[in-house]
Amino acid sequence: MLVIGICGGTGSGKTTVVNKILEILPADHVAILSQDAYYKDNSNIPLEQRKFINFDHPDSIEFDLLLDHIEALKRGETIQMPIYSYITCTRAKETIPIESKEVIIIEGILLFTDPKIRKACNVKVFVDAPSDERLLRVIKRDIIERGRNVEQTLDRYIDTVKPMHEQFIEPTKRYADIIVPLGGENMVAINILASTIRQKLGLTKDHNINTIFH
């Protein structure tokens, strides 16, 4: 089993990189875990106060549960991944069943801040991007997906996203085996990542990846 951790700042293009990897590997052999699903449930906090939660601090993540789920997948078990709502800042009662696969991809901004999660990853990837590009992506995403307006998004970026990135996320770049500058636009770096995955799985460039699973 190969566990790939993909980290990087908010809006850096991690999802694009993950999608590029999925173009390399057959989807039915890949399990994807999102760090975002493991934000702590905040149903005990009054609704009005939840908007002040700092989602860019490592303390907001239930890393122990994420690690338990990684280890369970390694044992061949099916896990129940939480469903988290940024609108209510709470977990849903429902969960998403994730079956154990030959390749596990874990993605999230704070992934490498936890030593145990880093140790669980066979390959650690840091997706990098200029701050202005990340800000534009954050604005678009927060308005469309998280119900915030431009002013709220900019205030959050200045108050938490930028300082937390500099304090917690950027320093974890040193743990990466591969750094992907310019996010999903850097096909050279993504191809290097693809070659690394093939090498870890014992495949040549033209080797049909399905052969390793039979």
In short:
The protein is an alpha/beta fold.
Question: Care to describe what's here?
Answer:
The protein has 214 residues and is an alpha/beta fold. It has one domain (2-208): P-loop containing nucleotide triphosphate hydrolases (Rossmann fold). It is 38% helix and 19% strand. It is built from seven helices and seven strands, in the order βαβααβββαβααβα. The longest helix has 20 residues, at 150-169. The chain is globular and about 50 Å long. Residues 207-214 have low confidence and may be disordered.
Strand order of the largest sheet: 2-5-1-6-7
Strand content: 15-25%
- Mean pLDDT across all amino acids: 84
The CATH class assignment is: Alpha Beta
> Would you identify the regions where 5 or more consecutive residues have pLDDT less than 50?
207-214
| Helical amount | 25-40%
CATH topology descriptor: Rossmann fold
CATH architecture: 3-Layer(aba) Sandwich
CATH superfamily: P-loop containing nucleotide triphosphate hydrolases
* Beginning-to-end CA distance, first to last residue: 14 Å
The count of helical stretches stands at 7
- Main sheet characteristics: 5 strands, parallel
Shape: globular
Judged by helices, strands and strand pairing, the structural class is alpha/beta
